[in-house]
Write a structure and sequence with these properties.
The protein is 38% helix and 18% strand. The chain is of the alpha/beta class. It folds into two domains: 2-164, HUPs (Rossmann fold, 3-Layer(aba) Sandwich); 177-269, Pantoate--beta-alanine Ligase, Chain: A,domain 2. Bound molecules: pantoate.
């Protein structure tokens, strides 16, 4: 891939990378479209990265459909689909990881303590291989986006990180490959996430600034569905991800909820009256 991209660079001035774990939905395709718009050459990677899954998580059953993904990537204008295998990426004796000291110790990182080390490591490896001009990430994985931005800044990586909005189903559920695990009954209950976020946004707009009250209301809305189990609901500073007690400027509400077995995440910016 390094050799191939060296040749590509003779005619293409810019390369966009969209890193994914495959099983494409409209969210992935929107990242590819953005990459297509921005750069001369679009590389899409599919790699279900073992380093970012903890024990007992869904690594072995993560949904896959490489043929369908290949067709969709081609239709969306990808020039290269890169699908490394795990043994080549992490050969026997592999021991180098990229670790951030603070940002991973909030939100999802509290519940998935090795997850962001795996993400930062694989993204660094992809950047080293592709040397992309742009790399595109969705805002649904907000903490991941912030960690990658920080890593790129801290380590002077010569790539521009572009973020793209969360793409939602018509009823508001954030698109995720993991939605495919939901039974029809759980699919309905999964709307608790977006309903809780939308409700908080409205309450903040109406002047409720106490984060405890907002989180309690969100808990109540989600807990009213029998198959949900809340991992966390937090309201934090959008830059540092530190939990806040009172909303005084833009704040991020983020949550992770198991609906049956799948663990779904979502987030929304909360904007108090008079800001933004
Ligand atoms: O967001 C994802 O799909 C993954 O975390 C990523 C960025 C492709 C790294 O494996």
């Amino acid at each position: 891939m390094i050799e191939h991209l060296r040749t590509v660079r003779q005619s293409a001035k810019t390369i966009a990378l969209v890193p994914t774990m495959g099983y494409f939905h409209a969210g992935h395709l929107s990242l590819m479209e953005k990459g297509r718009e921005l750069a001369d050459h679009l590389v899409v990677s599919i790699f279900v990265n073992p380093a970012q899954f903890g024990p007992g998580e869904d690594l072995d059953k993560y949904p896959k459909d490489l043929e369908r993904d290949r067709e969709l990537a081609e239709k969306t204008g990808a020039d290269i689909l890169f699908t490394p295998d795990a043994d080549a990426f992490y050969p026997h004796g592999y021991e180098s990881f990229v670790v951030l000291e603070d940002l991973p110790h909030h939100l999802c990182g509290i519940h998935r303590p090795t997850h962001f080390r795996g993400v930062a490591t694989v993204v660094t490896k992809l950047f080293n291989i592709m040397a992309p001009t742009f790399a595109i990430f969705g805002r649904k994985d907000y903490q991941q986006l912030m960690i990658i931005r920080k890593m790129v800044r801290d380590l002077n990586m010569p790539v521009t990180i572009i973020d793209a909005p969360t793409i939602r189903e018509p009823d508001g559920l954030a698109m995720s490959s993991r939605n495919s695990y939901l039974t029809p009954a759980q699919r309905v209950q999964a709307l608790g996430l977006i309903n809780a976020l939308e409700n908080a946004r409205k309450q903040v707009g109406d002047g409720e600034l106490d984060t405890k009250a907002l989180i309690n209301n969100a808990k109540f809305l989600i807990d009213s569905h029998p198959d949900t189990q809340i991992d966390y609901i937090d309201i934090c500073d959008p830059e540092t991800l530190e939990t806040i007690d009172k909303i005084e400027g833009m704040a991020l509400m983020a949550l992770a909820v198991k609906v049956g077995t799948p663990r779904l995440i979502d987030n929304m910016m909360l904007c108090p009256p008079g800001i933004g």
